[in-house]
Structures are given as C-alpha cells and as structure tokens.
Design goal:
- The structure holds 2 protein chains of 2 kinds.
- Chain A is of the alpha/beta class.
- Helices cover 38% and strands 24% of the residues of chain A.
- Chain A has 11 helices and 12 strands.
- Chain A has helices at 53-61, 83-90, 110-121, 126-139, 156-168, 186-203, 214-220, 238-243, 248-255, 265-281, 283-286; strands at residues 4-17, 22-37, 42-46, 68-73, 76-77, 93-96, 174-178, 206-211, 223-228, 231-237, 297-298, 304-305.
- In chain A, β1 and β2 (22-37) form a beta hairpin.
- Chain B has an 8-stranded mixed beta sheet with strand order 6-7-8-3-9-10-12-11, sandwiched between helices. A 4-stranded antiparallel beta sheet of chain B has the order 2-1-4-5.
- The termini of chain B are far apart.
- Chain B contains 11 helices and 12 strands.
- Chain B has one domain (5-105, 177-328): P-loop containing nucleotide triphosphate hydrolases (Rossmann fold), CATH 3.40.50.300.
- In chain B, a hairpin with a 2-residue loop joins β1 and β2.
- Chain B is of the alpha/beta class.
- Chain B has helices at residues 49-57, 83-89, 101-104, 111-122, 127-140, 146-150, 159-171, 189-206, 217-223, 241-246, 251-259, and strands spanning 5-18, 21-34, 38-42, 65-73, 76-77, 94-97, 177-181, 209-214, 226-231, 234-240, 308-312, 315-318.
- Chain B is globular, with a radius of gyration of 21 Å.
- Classes of the chains: A alpha/beta, B alpha/beta.
- Chain B: It is a peripheral membrane protein.
- Chain B: Keywords: ATP-binding, Cell membrane, Membrane, Nucleotide-binding, Transport.
Chain lengths: 308, 340
C-alpha cells in the first residue's frame, strides 16, 4: 500500500456571473490528478506558474478543500474526515513555505514560533517545551541561545531553517515543501537543500517537493510529476524525465533550462528552435481541441505519459 | 576587431549614508562595456551589483548617496551631470529593463502609451508616427497582435508579455546601452528562454551593449560575452565567458559554480559557502574580503592589499588566495556557523 495516494483529485473554483450571480463556469485548478508516494522518497511536482502544483500541495495538507477525489494517507481518506477527525492527521503532514520572510511572525520569538505546533498538539511543561525546541534548533544548525531572538535578526537561510525546525517538531511523516528555496541566494539554497536531504535520512521523511526550478528538482527528487493546466503531462523517475522525456511539453520545458556550459550555446539555441517547431507541428497529437492534455498512459513500469 | 567602448567605469565608489556615516556598497569598480557586447555581473544579493547598475542610471537618492570616480558614457562623465542633463541621456541612450515587470509598469496607462512616453521626451515625432513606431516595437518584441495589445493595460497581460513590454520601452529610442537588472528572474523557464533569445537577437540587430545583472549562472552562460564576478562591492574576477566557466580561478567564483544544482550531472551534495555576505557596516575594508568565508585557507595565502591582476590576457583575478585554493573534503561543519 502506498504511503500517500492521491486519487482523481479535483479542485474547482466556481466562476459566478450573469443573472443572480449564478455559477456559470469553473476554473479547474486541479483537474483529475492521481499519484502515489512511497515512504521515504522525494516526489517532485513541476510546472509553470498557474499549473496547479501549489493548489495540489495545499489541498493535501488541508488548506484548500478538494472538490472531488480522494487523498489517502496510509489508507485513510483525508477528504472524508470531519474537522475533529482530521485534527489527528494534521500533525503527520507539515509544510515548509516559500518565503521565509513572510511565513514567520515578526512579533514572536523563535521559541514561540517553533513551539506553536507543540502547544497545539502536546501538553508539555515550559521546561520540556524549551528543551524540545532547543533540540530542533540545534538540529537545524542554529545556536540554542537564538530561541530568544526575533526573526528579523536572522538571514534568509537561517529563517528558512527556523521554518524547517517548526515543521519538524511534531515528528511528521510527510513534509510538503512549496518552493522552499526559490527566495534564497544560490549559496544559501545549497545549504538548505543539503540540510533537507540530511534530515530526510535522519527522520525518515517523505517529501512532496514543489518547484518550478528543474535543476533543483533533478537534484532532490526520486520521482517527478509534470503538471500543465491542472493535469499531469508526464510522470516518471528523475532519470526518465530528464533523459527520455516523451511528451512535447516536457521536452520543451527541459530544453528551456539554461545550459551552464557557454560552449554549447549555439546547440542549445538550435535544440530549442527544433523543439519549438515540433511543438507547433505536432501540437494536435499531444493536446485536444480545448488545449488540454490527454489522460496518462503507462508506457513502462514507472513512466507514464499523457498521449491519446 | 576593434570595438568601441561605450561605457567606461573608472574606480567607482558608491557610498550610502547610514547613521551619519558613509559606507561603500560599490568599492573601486572599474569596468568597460563595448558596443555589441554583453557584460554580465554576478554575485549573491548584497554584493553591490544592483547598486552599480543604479548608479549608472543615476537612480540613487542624492541626499543619502556619495558617488566617486567616473562613469564615462561615450566619453562623457555622467556623475557631475544635473538631473535635467541626465534626463537627456537616460531613456534615450541608456535603457533599463527591470526585474519585476508588474511593478515596473504603470497600471493606469495602456501599454502602448507607456512605450510612447519615452518618445514624447526624446523625439519630435508626430503622434501618428509615434503610434506607428510603437506598433513596430510591439511586433519586434514578439507580441502577436500589436494593434490589440496597444490599448491593453498591464494587468491584462501575462508575465512574459509584460516583460516584453518593458523591453519594448527600453529599446524605444534605440539606446546604445541597455542595463538589464535580473530580466528573467520573475519568469518561468520557458518564458525565460524566449526572453533570453529575444534580448540576444535585439542586441545583435542594434549592436547594443548590455549590462546583464543576474545571480543565475545558467543565464550568464547563455547570454554573456564577458563576466564580472562581484563580491562585497569589489570585482573579484573578470574574464570572458568561456574562460570563466572552464577555468574559474577566484575561490568565490569556484564556490558559486559548485553550489548550483545541475540538470546535467547529479551530485549527492552541493557545496555550501560558509557564512553570509557581510553587511555594509561590518564589511572588512582591508585585506581579502572573502577571507572569512574560506577559513580553511591559510592566512599567508592572502594578500595584505589585494588588487585585481591580469593573470592571462583578459582574465583578471583579485588576491593571491586562488593559487592554492582547494575545497574541504566535507562541509557538514558549515551548518554550525550559528549567529555570532
């Protein structure tokens, strides 16, 4: 049994208008998405802005209500649970947010920020709480004394690590990381990514890693799902997606990554032009009349592509 | 192949006043940009790359900034110029592309009018000629339906389209120098590839010089002819793009290149540069400024007063610490720099 199984998930937002502001149409933010995560792996969700990757992540953690479909965490469907029942599962899933500047309350000390989940779920004495917070603060490489400081006293990378410490306090099983490093400089980015890999081993974490940066996805993820307009275009292992992309959209996305070798500049431009041409010529083979992709079709044990 | 220099920056110092004291954010930078050349400036945030760009445009608040040295544009020093004199040049001879196209555009003005605006100041064209030229520009930056787009407002356009409008504004008066400050950072990869292609194409058509400011080394590799790596207000390495990527010398350049995750090769672990860029007030003003971030390198490897030296034709490196530089075997210890 898969650790997390998302089945035909749909998130629709109604568009109102006309007489009595009736629902005239829907924005299909997530449209029939299914995927599975095994325990301990890192699954990457990739796509351009507006493709529904963040909505998918937020729906799994319960910040957005699913319109239809199932989210099975260890076999239990989270979408069918009442508020009270969901409470018990909430601590198993934690989130690391994109912007370390706006996701930490500037008026709270680090101690209060990191202890907040503990206070919600566990009854600890102040001493125990402090000890636990200090343990996690040290785990993320900050000085134990820094728990009495405020977020503005830290750099971007340190703040992001405070956010990670907060996510770790309840021993979650699944962490949803929504663009965790895109607000950081390259050097700090490396630090946070390395660190996320280390704690994954130590705490046996499963990551759902959401990003638009394919270099980072390649570095972090075991398996990848590519999204386009609320649907999956292609899914496979990291190797398959980067070395044997099947869908034209995936090919286009991968060819668009800047090549860090200036000597290959011409070839890269040529490759992009060729793929662009292929994209325009074979558009109707890959997209239907409404510009949507077809349902996923399995082409090997691990590799699926949206082709008719 | 003799190239005409269009911008010559000599020993530029840009200092900001913080609590009645001036601190240099750009400290003794000399850089030349020739026509038809893309010079990239890279570095972490806080290295002074944007401060350098804004000083060329004269966009720093005068009451809090001290500018020393010379910025010669086509042989004419820009620093002593008054605001009206500067207005004759910026927008006309020097164009600027900003990072975030949504904040760079006026939400209350149609995009066509915004492109015409700089022509209002710098040309004596009739309004129908201006409109004609604007439609041409829209076509040139790859906007599919220029006539329709002319009357659109920024919020009606996608991010990539908005950035194209910003580019159209920058090239409206055919400038001989374009300053592009993180032109693709706010965009998706596919759009980034299109915008990079467009900039490269326009640059080759118009023989413009471009100063490209970015922290994305992939963009540098695709766009630049020469690269200046900045650290803590100084240029630490300057070389042509092939040399910089194939034979980087300065420890900072090498660390940066090591820390990016690559699509081509998968590394188990990324290199982490110890510590952070020091803040303006805490910046060491003597000795090698990168010293504290490569603490495993012996003190004697550094110079007392490091200068930018030409080590090979066209390849400049600051300080001697690059000669025996190596990466430590394991940098797990990096996690524990704490906050001192």
């Amino acid at each position: 049994m898969a650790f997390l199984k998302v089945n035909h998930l749909k998130v629709y937002y109604p568009v109102r208008g006309g007489f009595f502001r009736r629902v005239i149409d829907y924005v299909r933010a997530v449209d029939d998405v299914s995927f599975e995560l095994e325990q301990g792996e890192t699954y990457g969700l990739v796509g351009e802005s507006g493709c529904g990757k963040t909505t998918t992540g937020r729906t799994i953690i319960g910040l957005i209500k699913a319109t239809a479909g199932e989210i099975l965490l260890e076999g239990k469907d989270l979408t069918k649970l009442s508020r009270r029942e969901f409470y018990h599962y909430r601590k198993d899933i934690q989130m690391i947010f994109q912007d370390p500047y706006s996701s930490l309350n500037p008026r709270k000390r680090v101690l209060d920020i990191i202890a907040e989940p503990l206070r919600n779920f566990e009854k600890l004495s102040p001493q125990e709480e402090k000890r636990k917070v200090q343990y996690f603060v040290e785990k993320v490489g900050l000085h134990p004394e820094s728990i009495y400081k405020y977020p503005h006293e830290f750099s971007g990378g340190q703040r992001q690590r405070i956010g990670i410490a907060r996510a770790l306090t309840l021993n979650p099983k699944l962490i949803i990381a929504d663009e965790p490093v895109s607000a950081l400089d390259v050097s700090v980015q490396a630090q946070v990514l390395n660190f996320m890999k280390e704690i994954q081993k130590e705490f046996q974490l499963t990551y759902l890693f959401i990003s638009h940066d394919l270099g980072i996805i390649r570095h972090m993820c075991d398996r990848i799902g590519i999204m386009y307009r609320g649907q999956f275009v292609e899914e496979g292992t990291s190797e398959e997606i980067f070395h044997d992309p099947q869908h034209i959209y995936t090919k286009r996305l991968i060819s668009a990554i800047p090549n860090p070798n200036p000597q290959h500049r011409q070839e890269q431009v040529k490759l992009r032009q060729e793929i662009d041409k292929e994209y325009h010529n074979s558009y109707h083979q890959y997209f239907d009349a409404e510009g949507r992709v077809y349902p996923l079709k399995r082409i090997s044990e691990t590799h699926s592509v949206a082709i008719p | 192949m003799s190239k005409q220099p269009i911008l010559q920056i000599e020993n530029l110092r840009v200092s900001f006043r913080i609590h009645d004291e001036y601190y240099a954010a750009v400290d003794g930078v000399s850089l030349t940009v020739n026509e038809n050349e893309v010079v990239a400036i890279v570095g972490e945030s806080g290295c002074g790359k944007s401060a350098l760009a804004l000083s060329i445009m004269g966009l720093h608040p005068l009451e809090r900034t001290k500018l020393e040295g010379t910025i010669a544009f086509k042989g004419k020093n820009l620093l002593p110029l008054s605001v009206p004199q500067l207005n004759q040049i910026r927008g006309k001879d020097i164009g600027m592309i900003f990072q975030d196209p949504l904040t760079a555009l006026n939400p209350l003005m149609s995009v066509g009018r915004q492109i015409e605006e700089s022509m209002d100041y710098h040309t004596k064209l009739s309004s129908s000629a201006k409109r004609q030229r604007t439609l041409e520009l829209l076509k040139r930056v790859g906007i599919p339906n220029p006539e329709k787009t002319y009357d659109r407002y920024p919020h009606e356009l996608s991010g990539g389209m908005r950035q194209r409008i910003v580019i159209a504004i920058a090239i409206a008066c055919e400038p001989s120098l374009i300053i592009a400050d993180e032109p693709t950072t706010a965009l998706d990869v596919t759009i980034q590839a299109q915008i990079m292609g467009l900039l490269k194409e326009l640059q080759q058509q118009m023989k413009t010089g471009i100063i490209l400011i970015t922290h994305d080394l992939g963009v540098v590799a695709e766009m630049a002819d020469r690269v200046a790596v900045m650290y803590a207000g100084e240029i630490v390495e300057l070389a042509d793009v092939n040399t910089l990527f194939s034979r980087p010398l300065h420890p900072y350049t090498r660390s940066l290149l090591h820390s990016i995750p690559s699509v081509q090769t998968r590394k188990e672990k990324l290199h982490v540069i110890q510590g952070i860029v020091p803040s303006l007030q805490k910046l060491p003003r003597t000795g090698c400024r990168f010293k504290s971030r490569i603490s495993w390198i012996d003190e004697s490897e550094h110079e007392k007063n490091p200068i930018l030296r030409e080590v090979a034709p066209g390849h400049w490196v600051r300080c001697t610490c690059y000669k025996n530089f190596y990466f430590p075997q394991d940098n797990i210890g990096d996690m524990n720099y704490g906050i001192s």
